[in-house]
Automatic annotation (TrEMBL):
Keywords: Kinase, Magnesium, Metal-binding, Transferase. It comes from the Bacteria. This is Phosphoenolpyruvate-protein phosphotransferase. The keyword S-adenosyl-L-methionine does not apply. The lineage of its organism: Bacteria, Pseudomonadati, Pseudomonadota, Gammaproteobacteria, Aeromonadales.
Length: 575
């Protein structure tokens, strides 16, 4: 037995036989001379791009993360874009092979996307799906990197169309731990993911889209593992992603003991009623591959449904009936006694649907940050209430930055309720919640708190704003801590419940801090629910409960350095 270590990307413990997924030979293949006629080479490219686009489109038909869906859509459009095909045909006519032509045309444009001073044409921008955004943004840099990786994956398939092997992805026949130098979401999702027990990468980007896929599919993952490719195919590998360690050929009793602590694939979840903690802990849902597989994690409730991802692959604006059917199929998995919280559509950034969005041209929602118009919101609110008939539902409005937006959205909900009452049909009892995820919302928190019964603080988005223009930090920064505290104080002053969402909600070392700001609601990824609940129970046993500590707040406002924050959070009496 020997061990390796790396950076945890998706927590959990699991084991399987090592399966090495080696890089596709795009670079070496692209040096091959053209062996076919120009017309045959052109046809080869068209066939390869069509098959690769179909693979991506098929992957998008499932419930993959919204960011991954947008990435796949971008690549699918890009490689089949008419302007790009014409440019590739011109290269082929000059004597290039299909692979060389694709590499010469596609890769430079993707590389330009990652430079701040690059400006693509309108047609290129459309093909690159959202490249008009500021490419100095860390999120845009991640997108550029993954676009490039996916493009190289595609180029490696061009010659394989002759034997219909498409992406030449090997078939898994047993529970496996994937070992690779790096991996794109497309290549991963082309595997038989039901047999993937963990992923170990020598490289990887923790903020990338693959990490989102792995977390939402509850697959443990560790990145940045030096020497990972020295692991031999077929060796038994135990991945303890919770602690960032990999054990190769561990003793059987060691593996069984670690897996028994957190077996994500066979163990039953704990009973949510068997606890006296004063904090609601429920799972977030946005990119779950198989809802039935995840149902056991939802017995604590649905802490946050990111509703837009359910309809991003629709080619038409979803009807009320379609939305009711989709929402009801999910709500049916949630016990009626458990919390049910759904966020209305948020199509901002890279979450553009395939259908055309009809935005308000005038009025308070004309520039609404969630990029959705009042007509579609009216339909969605109606669908959410109908799907939640006979139960309580928290409806969360995202990306509110202005009081006029809050007034309009709450008035729209009231209008829908009046209409359903007049129709005398059963519908859910709605409670308004406001998502606090921008500095504008934080600075006006007290005013926004008066519009709802729950504040839900989005720590992932706030972390990006807190670190801008640098990439988001993995550690808890003074700026992020202060924004969370200001939002909590706004809720406290008005008597509104406050909750935490996003990637910092699962950080158990921060729970005393959250409790001391009055937090009584946490929504986290499914695999972290048990861990968070156990830590909260331990804190409850020590006498901790949600309350707003004015002294802590005042001290927090006076600090500026990370050292001071560490001292405040982890060495003072409240921790």
């Amino acid at each position: 037995m020997y061990t390796m270590s790396g950076i945890t990307v998706s927590e959990g413990v699991s084991a399987g036989r090592a399966f090495l997924l080696l890089p596709q030979a795009a670079e070496s293949a692209s040096t091959a001379p053209r062996a076919l006629s120009a017309s045959d080479e052109s046809l080869k490219y068209r066939k390869a791009s069509r098959e690769f686009a179909n693979k991506l489109n098929n992957a998008m038909s499932g419930t993959v993360p919204d960011k991954v869906r947008d990435l796949f859509g971008a690549v699918s459009s890009y490689i089949t874009n008419a302007a790009n095909i014409r440019a590739i045909d011109e290269q082929i006519a000059q004597g290039q092979s299909a692979i060389n032509a694709a590499k010469a045309v596609l890769l430079p444009k993707i590389a330009r996307f990652s430079h701040e001073d690059a400006e693509l044409s309108a047609e290129e921008s459309a093909a690159a799906s959202g490249a008009t955004a500021d490419s100095s943004d860390p999120e845009m840099q991640v997108v550029a990197s993954e676009l490039s990786s996916l493009m190289r994956d595609f180029i490696a398939t061009i010659d394989s169309v002759e034997d219909d092997s498409e992406m030449s992805v090997p078939r898994l026949n047993e529970p496996s731990v994937i070992i690779a130098s790096d991996l794109t979401p497309a290549r991963f999702l082309s595997l038989h993911t039901e047999l993937v027990r963990a992923v170990v990468l020598e490289g990887g980007q923790a903020s990338g889209h693959l990490g989102t896929v792995l977390r939402d599919l509850c697959i443990p993952a560790i990145y940045g593992v030096k020497g990972a490719l020295t692991i031999k195919n077929g060796e038994h590998v135990l991945v303890d992603a919770t602690h960032g360690s990999i054990l190769v050929e561990p003793p059987q009793d060691t593996a069984q003991a670690l897996i028994a602590q957190q077996d994500l694939f066979t163990s039953d979840d704990d009973d949510p009623s068997d606890s006296d903690i004063e904090v609601t802990v429920a799972g977030s849902m946005g990119a779950i591959g198989e809802i039935d597989r995840m149902a056991r994690y939802l017995n604590h409730g649905l802490g946050l449904l990111r509703s837009e991802f359910l309809f991003l692959n629709y080619h038409h604006e979803p009807s009320v009936e379609e939305m009711v059917h989709t929402f009801a199929s999910i709500f049916a998995k949630i016990p009626k006694s458990a919390p049910l919280t759904a966020r209305t559509f948020d199509f901002a950034g890279d979450k553009k649907p395939l259908f055309t969005l009809d935005m308000d041209e005038t009025g308070p929602l004309a520039s609404y940050g969630a990029q959705v118009g009042s007509a579609l919101l009216h339909k969605e609110l109606r669908a959410l209430l109908l799907a939640a008939a006979g139960r309580e539902i928290n409806i969360v409005f995202p990306l509110i930055t202005r009081i006029s937006e809050a007034k309009t959205l709450t008035a729209l909900l009231a209008q829908v309720i009046e209409e359903l009452q007049a129709e005398d049909v059963p519908f859910g009892n709605a409670h308004v919640a406001v998502m606090i995820e921008t500095p504008a919302a934080v600075l006006s928190a007290k005013a926004f708190a008066s519009f709802g019964e729950l504040f839900l603080i989005g720590t992932s988005s706030l972390a990006e704003y807190a670190s801008a223009p640098r990439p988001p930090e993995d550690y808890f920064t003074p700026a992020l801590a202060k924004m969370i505290a200001i939002a909590c104080k706004g809720a406290h002053d008005v008597g509104v419940r406050v909750g935490i969402a996003g990637r910092f909600a699962m950080r158990t070392e921060l729970l005393p801090f959250f409790l001391s700001l009055g937090v009584s609601y946490l929504t986290t990824d499914a695999t972290s629910i048990t861990k968070v609940r156990k830590e909260l129970q331990s804190l409850a046993d020590q006498g901790h409960s949600p309350h707003f500590d004015a002294k802590l707040y005042a001290n927090l406002m006076d600090i500026a350095s990370t050292d001071d924050l560490q001292q405040l959070l982890f060495h003072d009496d409240f921790a």
